[in-house]
Amino acid sequence: MKTFAVLGNPIKHSKSPIIHKLFSEQTKISQKYIKIYVPINNFYKKFFHFIKNGGIGANITIPFKKKAYKLCDFLTRRAQYSGVVNTIKILESKKILGDNTDGIGLLKDLQNLKFINNTSNILLLGAGGAAQGIIYPLIKFGCNVTIVNRTYQNAKNIINHFNNIKNLNCLKLEDLFIINNKIKYNLIINATSSSIQGNIPNIPSTIINPDIFCYDLFYNFNKTPFLKWCIIHGAKKISDGIGMLIEQAAYSFYLWHGIIPNTKIIIKKYKKYNLY
Question: Do the strands 121-125 and 168-172 form a parallel or antiparallel pair, or are they unpaired?
Answer without folding.
Answer: unpaired
